[in-house]
C-alpha cells in the first residue's frame, strides 16, 4: 500500500513539475476591474495560478468597456492573453474574431459548469466564472414585510422608502429591464417599465446614480428596498447596516463575468490554464466569500450566510435572466433619453 501511495505521489509531483517547467518564466497579460474586485481576483485566481505554474500574471486595470476598446484598437497585435468582461462584450468580440474559440476538453473544470456558463465556447465566448445577480436589497430590521417579488416594489407599504438606481448604472439598467418585463414590457417596448417608474416616483421613490448613494439612503434616510446586486447587500452589512438580499420570484437578471481567450497570441495554452483555474470550484467559492458573486460551477459549496447572499444552486441559477447585451448597447442612448424624461420632475 505504501508503495502505491508513493508511486502516485511521485507521479503527481512529476506532472506538476512538468507543468511548472513549461510555464516558468512565461508571462500572461490580463485585465481586472480594480479596487476590491482586483484584490479578490488576486487572492482567488492570480496568486494561486502563479504559485501553481511558475508563470507571472501582468494585470492591467481596465473595466469591460475600456478593455474592449483596447482589444479592438490592438486587433493586429493584442496585449491581452485573457480578457474579462461583465457587460457582454464577449458576444461582439467573438463575432469580430477578436476572441478564440475554446474546446471544452481543454478546460478540466468545464464539465462542472452550469450549461448557460459554457454555452458558446465554440463560438469564442469565454465561460462565465461569476455572476452578479440583481434582486432586491432590503433593510431586514425596518422593512414592514420582507419583499419577495419585483411586483412588491409597487406595494404602497414601501412608499417613500424605495431607492431606484439610474439606468446609466449597469445594475440600474438590469433592475429597470426586469421591472419592465414584469409589467409586460420587452426589449422592444420599455414603456411599461417607464410607467412603473412613474408610479414609483409618485409613491415617493427616489433615484440615485451610484452605489455609495444607495448606502447613504439606507444609513441616513430610512430606505427599505433597492433593486440592486447581491454583492451590495454584503457591502452594506460590512458597513454596519442590517441589509439582506432576495431574488424576485419572477426571475433574476444577471451580469455575467466572463474569462475570454484572446485571438492572435502565442501562449494560448497557458492562458487556457488561467481560464480553467478561474472556473474551478475553489476559485468561485473564493469569489463568493469575498465579494458575494454567484458561482457558475455546480460543485461549489457555500455556507449558510454566503449562500443566502447569492444565486446559489441549480434551482436558483435556473431563475437567472440575461437580457441581450447587444440589444442593450444598441438602444442605450434611446432608453436613457426616455428614462431622463420620465424621472424629470
TrEMBL record:
This is ABC transporter substrate-binding protein. The keyword Acetylation does not apply. It comes from Stappia taiwanensis. InterPro entries: SBP (IPR006059). One of its GO terms (molecular function) is thiamine pyrophosphate binding. Gene3D superfamilies: Periplasmic binding protein-like II (3.40.190.10). Transmembrane segments: none annotated. Keywords: Periplasm, Signal. The keyword Signal applies. PANTHER family: ABC TRANSPORTER SUBSTRATE-BINDING PROTEIN (PTHR30006:SF2), THIAMINE-BINDING PERIPLASMIC PROTEIN-RELATED (PTHR30006).
Amino acid at each position: 500500500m505504501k508503495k502505491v501511495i508513493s508511486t502516485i505521489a511521485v507521479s503527481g509531483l512529476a506532472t506538476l513539475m512538468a507543468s511548472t517547467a513549461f510555464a516558468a518564466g512565461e508571462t500572461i497579460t490580463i485585465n481586472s476591474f480594480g479596487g476590491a474586485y482586483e484584490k479578490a481576483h488576486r487572492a482567488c485566481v492570480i496568486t494561486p495560478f502563479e504559485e501553481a505554474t511558475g508563470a507571472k500574471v501582468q494585470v492591467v486595470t481596465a473595466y469591460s468597456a475600456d478593455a474592449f476598446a483596447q482589444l479592438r484598437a490592438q486587433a493586429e497585435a493584442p496585449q491581452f492573453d485573457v480578457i474579462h468582461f461583465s457587460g457582454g462584450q464577449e458576444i461582439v468580440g467573438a463575432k469580430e474574431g477578436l476572441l478564440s474559440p475554446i474546446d471544452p476538453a481543454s478546460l478540466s473544470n468545464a464539465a462542472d459548469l452550469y450549461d448557460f456558463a459554457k454555452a458558446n465556447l465554440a463560438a469564442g465566448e469565454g465561460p462565465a466564472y461569476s455572476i452578479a445577480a440583481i434582486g432586491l436589497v432590503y433593510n431586514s430590521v425596518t422593512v414592514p414585510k420582507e419583499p419577495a417579488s419585483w411586483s412588491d416594489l409597487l406595494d404602497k407599504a414601501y412608499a417613500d422608502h424605495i431607492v431606484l438606481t439610474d439606468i446609466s448604472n449597469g445594475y440600474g439598467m438590469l433592475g429597470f429591464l426586469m421591472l419592465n418585463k414584469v409589467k409586460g414590457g420587452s426589449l422592444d417596448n420599455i414603456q411599461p417599465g417607464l410607467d412603473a417608474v412613474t408610479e414609483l416616483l409618485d409613491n415617493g421613490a427616489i433615484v440615485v446614480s451610484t452605489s455609495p448613494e444607495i448606502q447613504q439612503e439606507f444609513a441616513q434616510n430610512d430606505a427599505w428596498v433597492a433593486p440592486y446586486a447581491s454583492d451590495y447587500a454584503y457591502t452594506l452589512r460590512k458597513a454596519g447596516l442590517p441589509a439582506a438580499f432576495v431574488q424576485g420570484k419572477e426571475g433574476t437578471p444577471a451580469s455575467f463575468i466572463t474569462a475570454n481567450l484572446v485571438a492572435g497570441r502565442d501562449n494560448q495554452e497557458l492562458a487556457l490554464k488561467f481560464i480553467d483555474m478561474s472556473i474551478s470550484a475553489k476559485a468561485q467559492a473564493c469569489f463568493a466569500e469575498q465579494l458575494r458573486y454567484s458561482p457558475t460551477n455546480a460543485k461549489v459549496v457555500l455556507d449558510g450566510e454566503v449562500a443566502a447572499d447569492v444565486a446559489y444552486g441549480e434551482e436558483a441559477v435556473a431563475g437567472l435572466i440575461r437580457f441581450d447585451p447587444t440589444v442593450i448597447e444598441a438602444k442605450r442612448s434611446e432608453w436613457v433619453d426616455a428614462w431622463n424624461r420620465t424621472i424629470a420632475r
